[in-house]
Structures are given as C-alpha cells and as structure tokens.
Write a structure and sequence with these properties.
It is a single chain. The protein is of the alpha+beta class and 242 residues long. The protein has two domains: 100 residues, Immunoglobulin-like, CATH 2.60.40; 81 residues, no CATH class. It has five helices and ten strands, in the order E-E-E-E-H-H-H-H-H-E-E-E-E-E-E. A hairpin with a 2-residue loop joins strand 2 and strand 3. The relative contact order is 0.30.
C-alpha cells in the first residue's frame, strides 16, 4: 500500500500522477483505472459464494509463465546449405542455357545439374521437416492453452455474474465512481482522486512472452496533497494472459 503525503485533509480531488514503466521503459497508451473499492477482494467474495471451484490449471500456468521463445540460431547451417545449393543450381542452369546442346560436354553437365537439383530438393525437404518439428510443440501448447482459457472464461462468466451489481453497491456506499486515464508517450497519466483508499488496476502484455502479462493491483491512500505513484516491473504481478 502506498500513502500520499500526510497533511490537512479535504474532500476536494487531488491529482495523482502515475507513471508506468517496464524495466525502465515507458509504457504508452495503457489504461489505468482507480477503483474506490478493492475489485480483487470483491471477485474473491463472489468466487467463494459460487457453487463450483475455479478450474485448476496451476501446472499449465507455471509452464506458460516460464515460456521463452527460442532465439534464432547465430548461424543456421540448414539455411546456408540450401542457399548455397540453390545458387549452384541457378549458376549451372544459366551455363546450360548458354551451352550448345550438341557439344560433347553437354550430357555430362546436364547430369551434374540433375544431381545438384535433386540434392537441393532433399536439403529443402530436410530443412522444412526440422522447422515443422520446431513448430509442432508450440502449436500443441497453444491448443492446450486455448482449451484451458475457454474453460476458465466460462467459469468466470458464471461465477462473476454479480460483479456489476456488487461494484455498484460499493460505489454508492462510498459515493465515488471509478476514475480512469490512458498513459501518454512517456508513460504518465494523472487521475483526480478524492481523499481515501483507492485501488489502481492496470495490465499490459509481456513483451517477450505471448502467454503472460504484467498486472498491477495496488492500493494507494490519498490525502490533501498531490503525489506520484510508480507502476514498474518490480511492483507488478506476472500472470497468465487468458
């Protein structure tokens, strides 16, 4: 929990400047919402009162959060071999087109062309087979993720059906609606918040993991003075994006 500067309290809204960065790099165009209640606690309450437990995919989630796209090889031997063979085939084909087919050396040169072309086909097929083998595990993982995400979303639709009504009750109780804004090119957004407890909520896709996102669920307490709140990699929670 972060607290603003302690001072003379007032009911007037105060500007809260929020800056979002990932590893020091500003995050522009990101929506940041301040709720006058804790939305995560509200969701937990709804889940506890729902009849069925949330589908358990903890093992899959750990696998996804640890996922990393393999970096490209510094030197792709298969690609180099295919390119070299293809260039040789092209050069030999050019020389055959310019040669006299009635010459004594033409049959031998044409035989070399056929052998080289056959080698090109074999090497291209081997390279494609290798690439297909690399893609298949990722494709299988994506299918597992899709099925799991569909299951979780179906549960959430049912379990959290009463969220809007419960949130409306909380807003009426405090007499405050949520406040939201979008970060500028430098990652800044300013929200005008009345004194009291607020919960900042924002999420952004992980730049290197297509299955993960950074989530901020941070409580701040405002007083009568403006203050700043940093949302950084260190204050975020890494979660499965589904």
């Amino acid at each position: 929990m972060l607290a603003g500067a302690i001072g003379a309290c007032t009911d007037a809204p105060v500007p809260v400047q929020i800056r979002v960065t990932l590893d020091g790099v500003p995050v522009p165009g990101l929506e940041v919402t301040a709720f006058p209640y804790d939305p995560a606690r509200l969701l937990d309450s709804l889940a506890a009162s729902y009849g069925a437990p949330r589908p358990d995919f903890d093992g899959l989630e750990r696998e996804l959060l640890a996922f990393a796209i393999a970096p490209p090889a510094t030197e792709d031997t298969a690609d180099w071999s295919v390119r070299a063979t293809r260039d040789s085939v092209a050069d030999l084909a050019d020389s055959l087109r310019a040669a006299d087919r009635r010459s004594r050396g033409y049959p031998e040169a044409y035989q070399r062309f056929r052998q080289l072309y056959s080698r090109l086909v074999q090497r291209s097929a081997a390279r494609e087979s290798t690439r297909r083998g690399e893609r298949d595990p990722l494709r299988a993982l994506a299918l597992r993720v899709g099925r799991a995400a569909d299951s979780i979303r179906a549960w959430e639709i049912a379990a959290y059906a009463g969220f809007d009504s419960a949130a409306s009750i909380e807003e009426t109780r405090r007499g405050l609606p949520p406040a939201a804004g979008v970060t500028d090119p430098e990652g800044w957004v300013t929200l005008s918040l009345r004194p009291g407890a607020w919960w900042l909520d924002a999420r952004v896709d992980h730049p290197e993991n297509p299955f993960a996102e950074y989530v901020w669920e941070l409580e701040v307490v405002t007083s009568g003075f403006p203050f700043r709140v940093p949302l950084s990699t260190g204050t975020a929670r890494l979660a499965w994006r589904h």
